[in-house]
Please model this.
Amino acid sequence: MSGPLAGIRILEVGVMLAGPYATMLLADLGAEVIKIEPPGGEISREVGPSYFASLNRNKRSICLDLTSESGQARLGELVAESHALLVNMKPSVIRKLGLTYSALSRFNSRIVCVALTGFGLDGGDEPAFDYVIQAATGIAAMTGDPAGPPTLPGYSSADNSTGLAAALGLLAQIVSGRGGQVEVSLLDVMLSQLNYRASAYLNDGIEPQRFPHGAHSYYVPAQLFPTAEGYLALFVTHDGFWKAFAAEAGIDGFATMAERVSRREEVLSVVTVALAADTAAGWERRLRPLGIPAAAVRTLPEALKEYTHAIVTAGDFRLVGSPIRVAGYEPAYRPPPTLEG
Model:
């Protein structure tokens, strides 16, 4: 079975992470992705082969100097034969290189042009790296221990999330059958992902609080807990979960969510004492068969050793495969492209 995006051709003028991740997901689903690289190659090639492979498998590559007349001419030819172009660069560079719908529609009126930027095409050229956006949108301020400094996650959540949104916007416009300009910014995506946090403040004036061990603001108990060995993530979102957990852990009382929220510290104290009786791995083995959301905290190497179904081979590289699984279709993972002239 061919991929669901077979027959779709997408051009990418991508840099580092967000843009290349978006088009790689589309390539995994069968789209033909042509990565347009400048002389010398896209900058992420310099980071290392495994980094480049993790964002650029299943693509073709072509080297074009888009600042030259010949490069622009070749770009026009490619646009005429493609469904979409995705670019993630500064707005001024996007416009300078003619990578907008207004500049490219003369070659193909149905081309979909996706601009992935930090603050929008009209938002200026200020640097907009992942960590900068997390700081600017309040994410860092609401993350970490209450007594400690603001905290950033250990991976590029803003870039990856924006890549997903860009892929969605690109496909939506292709499905519409119309060409046009699509914009996705890191700022807008991360604000959007604060959904219920932002709504609580905008409608009820509730500012986000940091709780120890990453505790949830609405549900109790829902956080990390120390155990006899390691940490356990426990996420009790309704009274049924609590009843099953409390019976297994030997805890009495606190039957309703309202009571558990109003008596948060008492609940957390009792749960902490109970969980100290076994290891995180032991609690996971005991709680999961009961349908209780719980997981021992694993390192990345431990997770990859356990969840081997997610690992694929692309040439000489072992990578995490596509998260999108389509019945009857299995991507043929190919290695990242060499730089072609």
Remarks:
- The chain has a mean pLDDT of 96.
- The chain has 14 helices and eleven strands.
